[in-house]
């Protein structure tokens, strides 16, 4: 019988609003997010074990990674341990068997290949890069880093839905937060009542 558990893989460019969508799914529907790992420094307000597991060289190797990437000069990865914790949390929720995960498009392709129908891909994007840059600056990112990041090849790549995910993804254009919430409500409800 097909495994009915689902991982909502939320992907897209840095600043497109992926984490905001994942947070909304948690706050409104109790869908837990997989906490991933990185070796970058925490931004102001970010908490270890909540936003990321912030790792050093030694601790990085203590995890068992499903996939890992280099993004903007730093390591990021999702681990079996992180997924297990999210599944455990999901058992306590009103909608067990659904978790979310926020990754770049390289990670999303890996999940689709590995989990097949168990991975439900949501590609989040925006119409206007200048608006996205302002959002990142308002988030507290260093303006120089914002310019560097949004000029990077990783960013440019993640602004486009990869060929491997075409016709297998739900696209959310996150220009207006009210509309994004409505889109998320619609897509999550269709998963709950499948
Ligand atoms: N529709 C929106 N309108 C205005 N601001 C938004 C909207 N969606 C998200 N934001 C804000 O934009 C900033 C970036 O969003 P978020 O952190 O969710 O992006 P992200 O794709 O997860 O970025 P990263 O990959 O860099 O972590 C946040 O401060 C968030 O509150
Ligand atoms: N493939 C993976 N991508 C990940 C993972 N954790 C986060 N990310 C993505 O990295 C960039 C940069 O994140 P930031 O928090 O430094 O802005 C962004 O696209 C994240 O979604 C992961 O485990 N695997």
TrEMBL record:
The lineage of its organism: Bacteria, Bacillati, Bacillota, Bacilli, Lactobacillales. InterPro entries: GK/Ca_channel_bsu, Guanylate_kin-like_dom, P-loop_NTPase. GO terms for molecular function: GMP kinase activity. This is Guanylate kinase. Belongs to the guanylate kinase family. Essential for recycling GMP and indirectly, cGMP. The keyword Kinase applies. It comes from the Bacteria. Keywords: Kinase, Transferase.
């Amino acid at each position: 019988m097909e495994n009915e558990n689902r991982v909502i893989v939320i992907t897209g460019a840095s600043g497109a609003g992926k984490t905001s969508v994942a947070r909304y799914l948690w706050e409104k529907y109790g869908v837990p997010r997989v906490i991933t790992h990185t070796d970058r420094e925490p931004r102001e307000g970010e908490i270890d074990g909540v936003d990321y597991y912030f790792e050093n060289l030694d601790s990085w190797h203590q995890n068992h990674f499903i996939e890992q990437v280099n993004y903007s000069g730093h390591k990021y990865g999702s681990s079996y341990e992180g997924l297990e914790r999210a599944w455990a949390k999901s058992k306590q929720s009103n909608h067990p068997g659904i978790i979310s995960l926020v990754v770049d498009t390289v990670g999303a392709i890996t999940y689709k290949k590995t989990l097949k129908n168990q991975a439900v891909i949501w590609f989040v994007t925006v119409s206007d890069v200048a608006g996205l840059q302002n959002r990142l600056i308002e988030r507290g990112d260093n303006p120089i880093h914002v310019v560097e990041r949004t000029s990077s090849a990783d960013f440019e790549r993640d602004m486009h839905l990869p060929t491997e995910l075409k016709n297998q993804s739900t696209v959310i254009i996150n220009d207006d937060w009210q509309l994004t919430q409505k889109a998320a409500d619609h897509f999550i409800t269709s998963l709950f009542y499948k």
